[in-house]
Amino acid sequence: MIRFNSDYTEGCHPAILEKLMATNMEQTEGYGEDAYCKEAVEKIKKACHAPEAEVHFLVGGTQTNVTVISAALKHYQGVITAETGHINVHETGALEACGHKCLTIASKDGKLTAKQVADYVDAHFADESFEHMVQPKMVYISNPTELGTIYHKEELKALYRVCRERGVYLFLDGARLGYGLMCSENDMELSDIAANTDVFYIGGTKVGALFGEAVVITNEALKTDFRYNIKQRGGMLAKGRLLGLQFSVLFEENRYFDISAHAARLAEKLKTELKNMGVEFYIDSPTNQQFPILPDKILDKLREEYSFSYQARVDEANSAVRFCTCWATKEENVDALLNSIKKLLGR
């Protein structure tokens, strides 16, 4: 079985495994106070051009989202998100179980615009009953989004400007950040994201690490007591060096960006070749998640050899599915998938 259903099916980049083995019997401080975590923090701050930022390591995406948002908000405050936002549809209500409502906005491409956010916040405070409703205090976006789309620099800057003007935090979920930064349509660098958000995280779980996410906090107000929140949410790993070591390896020799570029290139190849076969797409994604529309009659046959995700029904005979590439995807597997689809389509 060749898997294209997610971007975390493999273990980790070999360089990480080698480093873990080489340092396995070392004794270090716990809870992220070790030299490897400190080294990783400095590498990330340098890559972000954000020397005053705080960097913290957590284990997984849902845990990170809940920890960041619950640390920032009071109990009566909620977070604005696209209806398709990960915190709204793929985290089993984890955030709302912790007492913070997802305030959803409809979006065709998975993105939020500055105008949507401005209108939502302004409408809340224009209502004479605003104190009887959940107060919007944070905006949650992801880059790439759940639909593989990305924010461009001017879009992010406009969002951040609106948030600052209205006293609302901007949080960017970067679970797949590398794949967004290295796709052909991107016009941002890591430093642009650091300069235009209050807090964001760099995903490791889906981009070459065994597990782990690196939270980068630039807003002074969100730095206070953040480690207390990590501990309370069960995120303070006793063997914290395992997280720091992985990010230290990812952020040496441009590795994080190089392996992300590999996934982006193969996704673009997949997209281009499918379009050449006449296949249409559910959404125009430039990143490692591709959503072709295929006849239902070939999907069961395709599943005999490949694993992929069902996305949506398009009509009575066709469905949109999702294929993911990642840092470890083999080009020959992409070629095999393309050949199988071409054969099944009779093209």
Shape: globular
Q: What is the β-strand count?
A: 13
State the major sheet. Answer: 7 strands, mixed
The assigned structural class equals alpha/beta
Give helix % range: 40-55%
Would you tell me the overall average pLDDT?
97
Strand order of the largest sheet: 2-8-7-6-5-3-4
Determine the strand fraction and express it as a percent band.
15-25%
N- and C-termini, Cα separation: 23 Å
Number of helices: 15
Low-confidence region ranges: none
Would you list the SSEs in sequence order as H and E?
A: EHHEHEHHEHEHEHHEEHHHHEEHEEEH
Radius of gyration, in Å, reads: 21 Å
Explain what the structure shows:
The chain has about 350 residues and is α/β, with parallel strands linked by helices. The chain contains 15 helices and 13 strands. A 7-stranded mixed sheet has the order 2-8-7-6-5-3-4, with helices on both faces. Strands 9, 10, 12 and 13 form a 4-stranded antiparallel sheet that branches. Helix 1 packs across helix 12 and helix 13 packs parallel to helix 15. The model has no long low-confidence stretch (mean pLDDT about 95).
Blueprint (SSEs and pairs):
Layout: E1 2-3, H1 14-22, H2 35-48, E2 54-58, H3 61-72, E3 77-82, H4 86-89, H5 94-97, E4 102-105, H6 114-126, E5 135-142, H7 153-165, E6 169-173, H8 177-181, H9 190-195, E7 199-203, E8 213-217, H10 220-223, H11 226-232, H12 241-250, H13 255-276, E9 289-290, E10 293-295, H14 296-302, E11 306-307, E12 309-313, E13 318-324, H15 331-345
Parallel strand pairs: 1-11, 3-4, 3-5, 5-6, 6-7
Antiparallel strand pairs: 2-8, 7-8, 9-13, 10-13, 12-13
